[in-house]
## 1
Amino acid sequence: MNDELQGKRFRRSDDNRFLAGVCGGIADYLGVDANIVRLVFVALTLLGFSGVFVYILAWLIMPGEHEQHSLLEQIIRNFQGKPSRD
């Protein structure tokens, strides 16, 4: 694994966000411009792939930049009746 990527985690960006910060977080992780990642999502959507579905899925499973747990984990814990972990 590349030394630059070790220790990094996928996180939604708080600073570089347009909707939910998914593209900004992916761009920060990969070290590329967020607009390139956004264009890839748009291209995938226009070419018939599930760009929107992948974006929503990433939004659910990627925790925010300053959060410990993802939105999906919080939803599952609430559904199970367990207290949310902060």
## 2
Amino acid sequence: MIIQSHEINTIKIAEVISDNIIIQSAQDGLDLMGNIYYQGFDKVILYEKNITPEFFDLKTKIAGEILQKFSNYRIGLAIVGDFDQYESKSLKDFIFESNKTKQVNFLGSLEDALDNLSK
């Protein structure tokens, strides 16, 4: 895992880069968030491919548990990926509602994520 640092408008954003799944559970999300916070970052960019597929099945409650932790600790999170591939109406609604907030967003590109998190 590599943490690429981006600084925009004095906001430190961590882009987490890996070829592997790094978030398999809520505890993994909490551990990553602690690591990022300890390094002085304000916000985090994760890639869909680095999150367990169970995250995108809302019945598992993994998404809610992880995103609640980011919200509680006020760490901004952008998840970058192709979310059109998911058929679930409840997931599409969840993404739509999340994107209304500034805390957790599901976006299509790194550029969109950086733009969103730098505001």
